[in-house]
Amino acid sequence: MKARVVVFPIRGRNWCFSRSADPSAGPDASSPPQKLRDLITNITSSRRSAPENAEIVVDFVSDKMNRAWATLEKAPEGTFKSKLHSLGLRLLSRVKPSEVFLKSVSKDVTQVEIAYPVGLEPRLVRRRLRHIAMRGSTIHKKRLYGSVSLLPLTSFLTVLPLPNVPFFWILFRAYSNWKAMKGSERLLPLVSDCWGSNDESMHRVNATSWVLEPSEELHKVLTEWKSGGVRDCTISSICSTYNLDKNQVLKYKESL
């Protein structure tokens, strides 16, 4: 599966790294939620490795969280669930855009198409992608361990009559950091010169795992960037052209 990544300087030393949404990929058809009993049966009845079983559990928890979030999103205005949804949006706004980008690199991605301004050095673009992948792997692994270590502490708050918001937030942070860590581990070999193997076929596969796409349109952005930063209206145009999440792209502009 191909993933199109758009890279361009957005303000000062801040660069934007964002994956284009696939317009042909519509929303998945709703399926009945999997029960805990089915999850246990699925894990115990097959000869999967521990990492494979861990992914199944993570997908199960992710599905439960997504369904719970969808319920909060549809809650009437002014209700307690609606207020919880607003709180969740404020918390999600604090998530760094680089984390969201790394989470978008799933395990089924086999090729990365890198769109960048034609005025940039291609080696610099690929070097920056490798850097964010290597740095993301280290950072999100530490944050994953930190989130997991906090889960037992926040679980004690379930005795309170109110929803245990801290527990579910820490659970989401653990899941999000795990996805970002896996995404960085997947991205790094895709944008590197080799897979770290002496097998010739592995080298041949990696030789086509990344494709550079210099863009004249993005090159025009550099003129604004040198004068202090890309304007919001220009960012809106870029996001519309490349199917990017504007809210996440704007975070790169304000991040340190």
Silhouette:
globular
What's the β-strand tally?
A: 4
Helical content, roughly? 55-70%
Poorly predicted runs of 5 or more residues:
195-205
Strand content is: 5-15%
Q: Indicate the structural class.
A: alpha/beta
Strand order of the largest sheet: 2-1-3-4
Strand count, sense and closure of the main sheet? Answer: 4 strands, mixed
**C-alpha-based Rg, rounded:** 20 Å
Question: What is the domain total for the residues?
Answer: 1
Mean pLDDT: 81
Distance between the termini: 32 Å
Sequence of secondary-structure elements: EEHHHHEHHHEHHHH
Provide a count of the helices: 11
GO cellular component, one term: mitochondrial inner membrane
Keywords: Membrane, Transmembrane, Transmembrane helix
InterPro entries: Mit_KHE1
Secondary structure topology:
Elements: E1 2-11, E2 14-19, H1 36-44, H2 50-73, H3 80-92, H4 97-103, E3 111-117, H5 122-155, H6 165-190, H7 200-207, E4 210-215, H8 216-219, H9 221-226, H10 232-242, H11 246-254
Parallel strand pairs: 1-3, 3-4
Antiparallel strand pairs: 1-2
